[in-house]
Amino acid sequence: MAAEKEFVDHVQTTSSQAATDTCSDTANHHGVVITVDAKAEARLRRKIDWSIVPTVSLIYLFCFIDRANIGNARLAGLEKDLKMTGYDYNKLLSVFYISYIVFEIPSNLACKWIGPGWFLPTLTLAFGICSVSTAFVHSFSSACGVRFLLGIFEAGMLPGIAYYLSRWYRRVELALRLALYLVMAPLAGAFGGLLASAILRLDSFGGLKTWRMIFAIEGIITIGLGLLAFATLTDRPETARWLTQEEKRLAISRVRSEYEYAGARAVLDKLNMKKITRGIFNPVVQAISWIMLLACVTVQGLAFFAPTIVRTIYPEKSTVEQQLQTVPPYIVGAVSTILIPYLTGRLDRRLILFIITPLLMMTGYIIFLATENANARYGATFLIAFGSFPLGVLTNAHASANVVSDTARASAIGIVVMMGNIGGLIATWSFLPFDGPNYPIGNGLNLATGTTCLLIAMRSMRIALNHFLFKIKAADSDQCYCSEGSQTPRHILMQCPLYADLRRTFLDKISMTDLRNSTNYDAIISHSQATRYVAEFMLQTGLLGQFRHVEIEPEPPQEGDETNKAGAGGEDDGY
């Protein structure tokens, strides 16, 4: 059957125009285009989606529930039963983040070393046991001990899943798949509130009452999911029991083509300290890490304090009704967590959405600070949820797309998530008892974090455009694949006959700057105002991809190492 033929059809040299017209998906590097059967790849992608995404989504759902259900337990009498006073609740939240932050990067490197197929289910089993154990604590100190252990075991989950998915999907596919599991964070808030409300309607569960039932029942469900994950998750395409040999070859080749396109020689590489540090200190990753930190002040603060905030808005409602009022904002957050990454995949843009989403967060907190009207403040929670929750997906996808090697990717995702959890630690102290009931200090802090996110994103967009132009300069020996043969970026931008109409529009825009009617290539690509127009031109010609992954500082491979090119090139500017 045609569908069962060799999946990687051929390797050919072609023009970018022909590559645009073909019905097959391609990956090209310096003129070499690897073409695969698009229909076969679509079938494979659906099979991967149904085989691994539901499992990782469910385990992350209960990972977040087991972390955030302490907010629901607080409403159900946790503080009273454990004799907690003053800032004890904030301290209890902070203990979790101390271990969470410390073990973030080591956990993700352990995930690479052990293999995600074993590591992620083991973590799920462990934090499920911690959740059940919380149901049996009888003092503040014992609760802190269990929360510390919970932080250790949950530390590797978010970056581990992101790293795991990067083994299976192309870069352009990754953001949506990250969204499909990270959407579980807002859904955990919604579902957790519903589940807590349902559990609290029970008289008892195994002799446990009130808030203890929440931890016990949700922990048991988590343990069951951990056991299921052992059966469903597999490390990588080569070891997948549910793929045929032909599908394995396609799964490997389609991911490998992007690694080779970026200058790497193998999909999986050996742990190497140089590559680890490259992933951590990549300038793009550093900027994204700070956005993640600031966003998580809001996201985690909403997770831990949404029930408390709702109680201050609707103090006359019962505890169960207050729990239910926390659900709708999380549903809106879940919608945005899918919608925004979907748009990034369709538009192949991320940084512009890094600018739009903080504006919504800022608007929500301005409303909180400006009015005491209950309906307006409740409406503001929807804006905050819509703007803040997608940032977790965008930051992880952008970090993953801006490093090359497997090791660098593991460390890059690890540092992004670690910084996010430093934001979570800050969030535990953002809403303090003396600041109630309207919490102007907490809301002001979150307004400041949203504003700073916006400023970093705007600066990052400018850096990305400049970096793109630097790589065009570095690619001066590349081809444009027009009928005249091998040509340079100078030719593409200023002379290539294939793009005469686009060039006229481009030069019209240039003439509106202080360059006037200049056709000097060096002056144009060095001019700050012309930066965006050059990028637009390369996008419209379909040639931008040639210059996204230019290896600027190639290095010889180290002995015994299959790839050494992590982080120096291979960046996906994604503006």
TrEMBL record:
SUPFAM superfamilies assigned: MFS general substrate transporter (SSF103473)
MF annotations from Gene Ontology: transmembrane transporter activity
Annotated keywords: Membrane, Transmembrane, Transmembrane helix, Transport
Region (Disordered) location: 553-575
A UniProt-annotated Pfam family: MFS_1
InterPro entries given in the database record: MFS (IPR011701), MFS_dom (IPR020846), MFS_trans_sf (IPR036259)
Residues in Major facilitator superfamily (MFS) profile domain copies: 52-475
Gene3D superfamilies according to UniProt: MFS general substrate transporter like domains (1.20.1250.20)
Subcellular location as annotated: Membrane
GO cellular component term of the entry, any: membrane
Membrane topology: Multi-pass membrane protein
Transmembrane annotation, as ranges: 48-69, 89-106, 118-140, 146-166, 178-199, 211-233, 280-307, 327-344, 351-370, 376-398, 410-432, 444-465
Family as reported in the entry's similarity comment: Belongs to the major facilitator superfamily.
Protein's name in the database: MFS transporter
